[in-house]
Amino acid sequence: MSLPVEGLAVEALRVLSRFRVEFYECLYARADELFELAEAVLCADGPVKTLVELTLAAEHRRGHGAMYQALDRGWMEPRRLRRVLAGLPLPRTSEGRIALAVDVSNWLRPDAPTSAERLFCHVYGRGRSADQLIPGWPYSFVAALEGGRTSWCALLDAVRLGPADDATAVTAAQLREVVERLITAGHWKPGDPDIAIVMDSAYDVTYLAFQLADLPVELIGRLRSDRVMLRDAGEPCSTPRGGRPRKHGGVFTLAKPDSWHTPDAATTTDTTRYGKAEAQAWDRMHQRLQKRGSWLDHPGELPLVHGTLVRLRVERLPGDREAKPLWLWSSATGIDAAHLDRIWHTFLRRFDLEHTFRLLKGTLGWTAPRFRAPDTADLWTWLIIAAHTQLRLARPLAADLRRPWEKPLASDKLTPARVRRGFRHIRPQTACPAGVPKPSTPGPGRPPGSKNRRPAAHHDVGKTVKREPTLEAHRAKIAATG
Predict the structure, then answer these.
(1) Under a CB-based contact definition with an 8 Å cutoff, are residues 36 and 62 in contact?
(2) DSSP secondary structure string, 325-340?
(3) CB 40 within 8 A of CB 60
(4) How many Cα atoms are found within 13 Å in the side-chain-facing hemisphere of 222?
(5) Highest mean pLDDT among 166-170, 319-323, 437-441
(6) Which of 21, 23, 19, 14 is CA-nearest to residue 382?
(7) Residues β-bridged to residue 248
(8) Rounded CA gap, 60 and 38, in Å?
(9) Helices and strands (H, E) in the chain, number of each type
(10) Nearest to 459 by CA among 18, 130, 117
(11) Phi, psi of 129, deg, nearest 5
(12) DSSP 3-state assignment of 280?
């Protein structure tokens, strides 16, 4: 059943109004000011540079003192907002499949020695050997991807990685909770295709696939070109001399074509952006696991996690860059040619999340404030996620308010920045649960001439709980402590 354009606009307006009310109900302290602060982020003229400038927006009816007090003493329940985000209409790929992307974006705080729980964040440089480690707060985001080239995605969760957290374990728990919330919300039902989860090479995709094996998910991760994979050993059989059956098959070195065998599936696709794309797949390939890293605390013998190894080679890249082969590993086995194309098509949609990070930082001002407390940074992060979600829900209602030098876009091709330009005109049609501000008298503040006798404490940067690199060191540490 298809609805007319007016019907789609009415439905979109209803969903947006409902989300605004539910978002307001997630704010338990200083709710009116926090809600209006998110309104100012959406309706401000130009990118958000400072917090105090947001109080000058017409949608922000309170003073700058109330804004600072709300960020310092406000409280929002993230668990409730996570359930609200999971219950919203979810974008899907062109095949009708749910595709999730997980990635880390850093809030850099290099000159904040009084800010606690900072870690060394990896930042890419413009040339080789130009990468840096800068102190900051890393946040792990999970978003639902759309089909086709777009700068939109649906942010579903955000978790700040702390000094005592294991990044892989936190990611596994985060993905499990997101998938379970989507299943509870009715987005996935038995018989539907597995939920695809794409990630970059910084993640241990094998460990995550093992931890999430009981969920209806297919993990797709990029591999470094210097990795070595192993073939399946086949049916268990001993050598003529007896002994233990062989566990691993032959070696498959990604950088050495001589070690490759005939692929189990291969496709060739003509694309408008990359030219001819050639994909090859080798079934039931696994990694040789060792008792280190994420597997250090695994009880018993290490498992064999089989999957499909994919090699993608394109004819060209945008910007006349060298088109190097792309290696992927999928937790699915026994795939056909159609499934092979879905794997690399879904992975390419992961880069849409980079556009969202650029929007959050450059336009919505996610990393613009200089908060001292990490809890305040978490609160501000959720306000930005709520603002981005309102932009996504207002997408069918926005008009193309383009600059004179910009090209016209169709209503279904509007970027988040253009939707934000027209949100001020959409806002009066939606529900606004924030109350009217009450007149008040500002406090006396600190007496003139007095000094701050409570200086802020300084905090070290880096991990407070470090994992032992080898099994022997891990056992020695356990024996020493206990």
Answers:
(1) yes
(2) -EEEEES--S--HHHH
(3) yes
(4) 20
(5) 166-170
(6) 23
(7) 232
(8) 9
(9) 12, 14
(10) 117
(11) 60, 25
(12) strand
| Interstrand relation of 265-271 and 75-76 (parallel, antiparallel or unpaired) | unpaired
The answer for residues whose C-beta is within 8 angstroms of residue 293's C-beta and 6 or more apart is 168, 204, 207, 467
With left for phi above 0 and alpha for psi between -120 and 50, is residue 46 left, alpha or beta? left
Q: Are 225 and 254 in contact (CB under 8 A)?
A: yes
pTM (predicted TM-score): 0.92
pLDDT of residue 2: 37
Q: Look at the alpha carbons of 156, 202, 210, 254 in this order and tell me if their dihedral is positive or negative.
A: positive
* Parallel/antiparallel/unpaired status of strands 99-108 and 195-199: parallel
| pLDDT value of position 1 | 31
Find the mean pLDDT for residues 462-467: 77
Predicted local confidence at residue 446, as pLDDT: 78
Average pLDDT, integer, range 453-458: 86
pLDDT at 186: 95
* Cα–Cα dist 463/274, whole Å: 41
Contacts with 153 (C-beta within 8 Å, 6 or more apart), sequence order: 91, 101, 143, 144, 145, 146, 352, 353, 356
Measure the CA–CA gap between 394 and 277, rounded to whole angstroms.
36
The mean pLDDT of 303-316, rounded to a whole number, is: 94
- Could you tell me whether strands 195-199 and 217-223 are parallel, antiparallel, or unpaired per DSSP bridges? parallel
**pLDDT tens, residue by residue, 342-395:** 999 999 999 999 999 999 999 999 999 999 999 999 999 999 999 999 999 999
Distance, CA of 190 to chain centre: 26
The distance from CA 234 to its chain's CA centroid, rounded to whole angstroms, is: 37
Q: What is the pLDDT of residue 5?
A: 47
E strand or H helix that includes residue 251 = strand 248-253
What is the per-residue pLDDT for 238?
60
Total length of the chain: 482
pLDDT digit string, tens, across residues 229-249: 999 887 766 666 666 777 888
Place of tokens 């102190």: 135
Judged by phi (left if over 0) then psi (alpha if -120 to 50, else beta), residue 133 lies in beta
Instruction: Say if residue 150 is exposed, middle or buried (CB neighbours under 10 Å; 0-12, 13-18, 19+).
Output: middle
pLDDT at residue 4 greater than cutoff 80: no
Packing angle, helices 5-25 and 78-86, rounded to 10 = 160
Using CA atoms, how far residue 201 sits from 198, 234, 391, in Å, is 10, 28, 30
